[in-house]
Amino acid sequence: MFIQNAMGKVNISKQIIAKIIGIAVNATNGIICTSTGVVGKITNWLGGNRIQNGIELKETDRGLDIHLCVTVQHRLKMPEVCKVLQSNVREAVEKFTGLSIGSINVTIVGVSVK
User: Which of 16, 21, 99, 110 has a C-alpha 20 to 30 A away from that of 58?
Assistant: First the structure.
């Protein structure tokens, strides 16, 4: 991922963006962890889009599309938790990288009863 400015180009690795996203995920109440889940494991095995640690990044014309696979804490309203997660991730990525965000899609792959 790169940003073009008057002085040249700045490259930001996907691993760094994934770390920023991971910090935002960990700061979101109700989200236990990111995980590839069964679908992600099958996709990786078949050689499709790679989901690493439950975070998939894709550059598009609209900006960076982010797909997260997460486990949510039991007894919480999932849509509300995911909305806060999407907001936290958008804010963190835009603040630290300056990249435009196209979409943030969340797939709930588990529920934790702890």
Answer: 110
